[in-house]
Every structure is written in structure tokens, then in C-alpha cells.
Amino acid sequence: MKAPVRKIIGQSTVDGPGNRTAIFLQGCNIRCAYCHNPETQPLHADDVEMLSVDDVIEEVKKGIPFIRGITVSGGECMMHQPFLLELFRKVHALDAKLSCLADSNGTFLFSEPLLSEVDGVLLDVKAWDASVWKELTGSPTNEVVKQNLKNLLLRDKVAEVRIVCLPKDGPIQTDVEAVIAGVKAVASECGRPMPKMHLIAFRPHGVVGTLAETPMTSAEEMRVYESFLQ
Ligand code: SF4
What we know:
The chain is α/β, with parallel strands linked by helices. It has helices spanning 53-63, 81-93, 112-117, 130-137, 143-154, 176-189, 219-227; strands at 2-12, 20-25, 49-52, 69-73, 99-104, 120-124, 158-165, 197-201.
């Protein structure tokens, strides 16, 4: 099985816990106003290689024993769910104690086999309110994101929830407080503790469109967002 792979970083310390091989698949199904990698959105691009799972496995092997696992990101890696499943199965079969994480926008439902195989998901919960979500992403509904959140919490497979926090006076808003309250409510409903929450300050670098000229979210604003976690 093959998938379009934009790049592989042999050893990354910013794509989940520990040192990991990060694999970036091409293509995304939504259009976030704050996307800083818009070149990853089209499914096909001239500068992107089609690689097989075995090609990727060869790259992963080069990192052993220096990596704790792999993280597959994008674009949106769940556009290539069968590839992901085969890759995770083969990485686990290497018997090198490598964990397999997916970094996902949550808009494709994780299948049962993938829920069993993935060790954790870095799940973007970009907005809670449907209208905020739609304005931010251009996608009609975030119901699947909420369903994934619940399914993953029940399996104890939320590595972290990620929220990009926009400045308050920008042209588009995020409902960070509502996301935090929503995640808390779903965790409580599932009888699970609040997952790790990772609040990320918006940065305009690479962003095109409405938010291209919007300044970075200030440290002071981030402190206010962080206070919602208390
Ligand atoms: S989900 Fe990620 S890759 Fe897709 S548009 Fe949003 S920020 Fe960009």
C-alpha cells in the first residue's frame, strides 16, 4: 500500500513524547484559517513522493534504538487510514517497543481496527461550537471530532488535545473556553480524567488568507486561555 509522503523527519522532539520519527502525509480535507502548511492540503503535489509502507518502515528502522516511536501527521493523516493501519501493524511487529501516534484533526472516524492499533492520538479540537468550527475550518460539522474524542477517551488513547488559540481582536475567533469545558464534560461522561491539554499560540508564519496579517497571540492572552484550564 502506498500514500503520498511529503516528508519524514528521522528524529523529532516536537511531535509527541520523546524522540520520534515523524511522517507527514499529504492531503487535508478541511481548510483551517490558521493553517501554516497550506502546501500540505492538496492530495496531489509534484514535490510529494508516493511511498509504500515498507519504504517508510525502512526509514523508521534507521532511528532504532534512538527513537521512542513514530508519529504520523499531515496534512491530515486519517485521509490515508488503511495506510496508517498497515504502517502501525508493521511498526509494532518490529518488536522494538515503538509506540505509534497519529496527529489528527479528528474529522474521520477512527475504525475499530485502528482504535486497537494506535497507541495514542494528538487530537485537534479546533472549536466546540458548530458555527465557530465552520467559520474556522470551512467544514460543515465537528460532530465526528466529538465522537472521536469520546471513543478515544474510552480507550485511554488521547495522547493530548490540541487547541490553536487565536488573538481576541483578530478577524476570526476560537472558542477555547468552550472547547476546554466540552472536553471536560466528555471526559467526565466517559469516567476518565481530563486528558492533557496543549494550548498553542497562533503564529502567522506561512498562513495565507484572512489571518495572514494577524499578529501572534500574545503571552498575556495565552495566560488568560491557560487560566481556563484551572
Ligand atoms: S487540519 Fe491541519 S493541515 Fe488541515 S487545514 Fe487544518 S491546520 Fe492545515
